[in-house]
Amino acid sequence: MSSLASLPPDAPSVAFLGPTSTNTHQAALERFNVRTHKFVAQTTIGDIFTAVQTGSCQYGVVPFENSTNGSVIFTLDLFRAARTAYPNIRITGETYFHVHHCFLSLTPEIRDVKRIYSHQQAFGQCETWINSMVKGKEKIEVSSTARAAEIAKQEGVGAAAIASKLAADAHGLKVLARNIEDATNNTTRFFILERLPDEEVDGGGGGAAAPRAIEISQTKPRKGSLTHPSTGEGSRDKTLLCFTCDHEQPGALCDSLKVFKDKGLNLTGIQSRPSRTKNWSYIFFVEFVGHEEEPAVQEALKELEKFTQDMMVLGSYQDKSPKN
Ligand SMILES: O=C(O)C(=O)Cc1ccccc1
């Protein structure tokens, strides 16, 4: 856990994937002010969800997807469990962080390294370099890149980590190679999580979230939203939701996606994971431009309920995607 001694005890806290100097930590530091916020390191991404769900931290920062390596499946699988395990969690922001990876070790030469520790995402983002420089060496996935650096330091000669330059400095390792990521513009997108009060969670009481009854209202903010539509010039919002649909029904996914087209809502992403309720059935994560308090979005959500099961809005947040 890291915090500044001068902060008041009631300073808002930010849960991030620890130990210090992970990419998630660096993304969190860009988004939250260290002079006003406590930063609380967590061992796993699941611990970040738990810290926000239980209210032990006001904010959580979690990696969601990478420009070259795709979905962070650990995070998707935690969102999949949101209805039952984390019903109060909502996404209230996103932030993008340019990720550089280094090859760190106490071993003087790369060729003498025997084992390489890193996070699954980092291995995926450095495949080309790994295949040309350390092909065939043992790769061991650990909870974060900074944890990998800690282990490489503890184990000494023979062990290496793929982690940031900051982690090399923090853990006293030598940088044997830098910027080993496959793509020069390697960027990870992170979500900011917050806790919705119990009375705002459908089904109430902070227990399992019941299916949402969508009320269409232009005057009353939609129940369950922690943010409001953006108003600044050129700014826009996005919403992420998840649902399953009957895979025995021909066209069920097509009917669901057509709702967005019919309401003029542009999709910005679609991902899927096994539902874990039935073999070969899937949960879909759909992101689109719009805020859940906007009438067109409310209408779409009501329509979507006809074609889907277990629909849950995971949050609406301001679009921060870097404009290419
Ligand atoms: O392990 C880390 O440093 C993390 O924050 C997860 C991660 C790993 C690689 C790229 C982006 C995020």
From TrEMBL:
Protein name as it appears in the record: prephenate dehydratase
Pathway connected to this protein: Amino-acid biosynthesis; L-phenylalanine biosynthesis; phenylpyruvate from prephenate: step 1/1
Keywords: Amino-acid biosynthesis, Aromatic amino acid biosynthesis, Lyase, Phenylalanine biosynthesis
Record-annotated ACT domain positions: 241-318
Organism in which the protein naturally occurs: Ascodesmis nigricans
Lyase found in the keyword field: yes
Biological processes per GO annotation: L-phenylalanine biosynthetic process
InterPro entries documented for this protein: ACT-like_dom_sf, ACT_dom, Chor_mutase/pphenate_deHydtase, Preph_deHydtase
